[in-house]
Design a protein that fits this description.
heterodimer; A: 396 residues; alpha+beta; three-stranded antiparallel β-sheet; 16 helices; B: 322 residues; mainly alpha; 69% helix; 0% strand
Chain lengths: 396, 322
């Protein structure tokens, strides 16, 4: 505790509970369950909060309503089947989730994958990141009462989903990764259509931005609200855009590059890490908005490269029964919401002995108990929405 | 006073006319909201119900609401819970009866109709408070609390803005205000008009001031436990409120039925002037997020009240000087 949700943009400390929480009167605390079914929890997260008037005294995230035992299920699936399970926990970034599994297996097998596959994976991962970010850029304003950005965001999502669907056949759960590469080659003429989609999204992004950036009401609702300190980021293992909004400059695409990111994030490359220092809800929103631009830049760089690469295979021939040699490895990737790690332990069999999943939202949601006390119920929504979590990613 | 020497037939006819307007106009505004919001958001809005551009969507909604089960939560204060929707709806009906739309067209021409409208519409908010309390639901209770807090913010500026117009016209009668109106008022009473518009949106619980309802925070607040026809009454009250305040805005600040065309088009002018106001109220919902309760209080006490008081002083000075 100790963090308070006071609006400090004005140097004076403002009273937030004018008329909404009786200042001088004796009051009784009220326990309010937000969720498991509540429109602001995107699923079945439950927050048990104690209220004095509208001010939150304490808050406890109660998780597990959507626990599906993914890690245990991994242990009885072979490596091809695991991919279909693993892409489900964060349903907004299925491609990113698949990626970690196949990277871990390929690493254990010591397998080299074709260059075309690497660049295609990078492209798809970035498009998936844009999809995920757009979702939150629509849903967060919706929680603050602005209904229109949602429709704009979904219009752009549709554009990108169309090209992803054309390549993979899926709109959410792509199942396009395979150990050793991709399921199949990219369709003829697809790169041009992706470029058109990216250009189109980039052209219309200002529609969303103009409704968010500089809107005085949105600023009033988010600036200085739910401030997350770098210390708390480190203490709770918060990662991704939320950590970067608090000034913690960490991005696995640059710091522990995988796929083609080493080249993209090299000096002079299109990759850059977006950070803010204030750590409030507004900063988190801004980071997300800017990351969309960065991801579109990266996607275009991938398109350029894919266009210049010679035709060739995008996958490896695999044995009928895929066994991973004995040993262990940890592979972490930068998912749209933060670090997504797989710790794979193999005893040389066709199923993993243990596959531990480190998901981004799980750690990110835990920190709510620190930043919610002191906020009003209205701020609770502003903070919760800006923590950008997927309940499946929390509960696994 | 014309109100005193009406025959029974006349009273029935006038009441029926008000009721008809009360049932039709809110539906028109609701349909307009569906379509305007749709087109502003890259959608089409309703397209199927009734065949032509979904014109019957709200009728279909109404039919659906009627069929729903009438539920009262076990822990609720049953009588209050059941009365609350009527409490929210009826005051707007009553208020509408005194608003003039055409020379001589006013259901009940009471002497201090401006005051009467404010009082009647102010009662409507009681419906929210009662619903919030009687539902025996924590979200509803918070919604009711917010409603009460909001009441403190907008009532005073609303009254001050209307007072300024009444002072300028030298009468409390809405008909008298229209008679006294001149185009100069558009500039002279502009601050009052803005204050009135903002306060009206707050009274109607429309975005950006929909904190008592806040679907993403407190799950519709006082309406959480309502369903079926009772819920529909609350919705109808909201749209009736938009109609009432739009027409009132046209009457107070835009000269009501006065226009360049022949006299019989008066009612048309009133509606034509009210329409953009209703459009504006809808537009706000499309464009803006929701404020926080304390931010509305700041806006009201540091913004609206001083502006309204300044306007009142200005009006008084001009009236005395001329």
């Amino acid at each position: 505790m100790g963090q308070t949700c006071t609006v400090t943009s004005d140097t004076r400390r403002r009273a937030l509970d004018v008329g909404v929480g009786a200042g001088g009167l004796a009051t009784a605390d009220m326990i309010l369950n937000i969720g498991p079914q509540h429109p602001a929890t995107h699923g079945v997260l439950r927050l048990r909060i104690v209220l004095d008037g509208e001010r939150i005294v304490s808050a406890d995230p109660v998780i597990g309503y959507m626990h599906r035992g993914a890690e245990k299920l991994f242990e009885v699936r072979d490596y091809r089947q695991i991919i279909v399970l693993a892409n489900r926990h964060d349903w907004l970034s299925a491609f990113g989730n698949e990626l970690g599994v196949v990277l871990a297996v390929e690493h254990m097998l010591g397998m080299e994958i074709p260059e075309r596959a690497t660049w295609a994976r990078t492209l798809l991962a970035e498009l998936n990141r844009v999809l995920s970010h757009l979702m939150f850029l629509g849903s967060y304003p919706l929680e603050l009462g602005a209904i229109t950005p949602m429709f704009y965001a979904f219009r752009e999502r549709e554009e990108l989903q169309a090209v992803l669907e054309e390549a993979s056949g899926g709109r959410m759960h792509y199942m396009f990764n395979r150990v050793g590469g991709l399921k199949e080659d990219l369709p003829a003429g697809w790169l041009g259509r992706v470029r058109e989609a990216v250009t189109e999204v980039r052209r219309r992004l200002p529609d969303i931005e103009s409704m968010l950036v500089g809107n005085p009401i949105l600023r009033a609702r988010t600036e200085g609200v739910g401030r997350l300190s770098p210390e708390l980021v480190h203490a709770y293992g918060v990662s991704g855009p939320i950590a970067r909004a608090s000034g913690v400059d960490v991005d696995l695409r640059r710091d522990a590059p995988y796929l083609a990111y080493a080249e993209l994030y090299a000096q002079g490359g299109p990759g850059r890490v977006v950070t803010r220092i204030s750590g409030d809800s507004l900063a988190r929103l801004e980071v997300l908005l800017e990351q969309v631009h960065v991801s579109l830049d990266l996607a275009e760089a991938c398109l350029d490269r894919l266009g210049s690469l010679p035709q060739g295979p995008v996958n490896q021939r695999l044995p009928k029964v895929l066994k991973v040699p004995e040993g262990e490895t940890y592979v972490a990737t930068e998912n749209p919401l933060g670090f997504n790690g797989y710790f794979l332990v193999s005893r040389g069999e066709k199923t993993p002995w243990r596959l531990k999943l480190r998901s981004a939202s799980f750690s990110n949601v835990q920190v709510l108990r620190e930043i919610l006390p002191g906020c009003l119920v209205a701020d609770m929504v502003s903070v919760l929405g800006s923590m950008f979590f997927v309940v499946g990613d929390v509960d696994k | 006073m014309t109100g005193l020497d009406l025959t029974v037939v006349e009273i029935v006819l006038r009441s029926a006319a008000v009721l008809a307007a009360f049932l039709v106009l809110p539906l028109l505004v609701g349909q307009m909201e569906h379509k305007v919001m749709g087109h502003m958001q890259g959608r089409l809005g309703p397209m199927y119900a009734g065949g032509f551009h979904g014109w019957a969507q709200l009728v279909a909604d109404g039919v659906k609401f009627i069929q729903k089960e009438d539920l009262t939560p076990a822990a609720a204060d049953r009588r209050l819970f059941r009365i609350a929707p009527a409490l929210a709806l009826v005051p707007y009906l009553v208020a509408m009866a005194v608003v003039p739309v055409h020379p001589g067209w006013v259901a009940a021409d009471v002497p201090a109709s401006a005051l009467f409208v404010l009082v009647a519409s102010g009662v409507s908010i009681l419906g929210m408070l009662v619903a919030g309390w009687a539902s025996a639901n924590k979200y509803s209770l918070i919604g009711g609390m917010r409603s009460a807090a909001q009441l403190l913010a907008y009532e005073l500026p609303l009254v001050l803005a209307v007072a300024s117009v009444c002072l300028a016209a030298g009468t409390l009668s809405l008909t008298g205000i229209i008679d006294a109106w001149s185009p100069v008022w558009l500039l002279w009473q502009l601050p009052a008009a803005l204050v009135f518009l903002v306060a009206a949106v707050a009274e109607l619980n429309r975005p950006p001031f929909d904190m008592p309802i806040a679907d993403a925070e407190i799950v519709m607040g006082p309406f959480t436990e309502y369903g079926g026809l009772r819920f529909a009454f609350f919705l109808l009250a909201e749209y009736a409120g938009i109609v009432l305040f739009s027409v009132l805005f046209a009457v107070l600040f835009l000269g009501g039925w006065r226009g360049p065309a022949p006299a019989w088009t008066g009612w048309l002018w009133t509606l034509l002037k009210a329409l953009p106001v209703a459009f504006l109220i809808i537009w706000m919902r499309v464009a803006w997020p929701r404020l926080r309760e304390d931010q509305l209080q700041r806006l009201a006490w540091l913004g609206l009240v001083p502006v309204a008081l300044g306007q009142l002083a200005l009006t008084a000075v001009v009236v005395v000087a001329l």
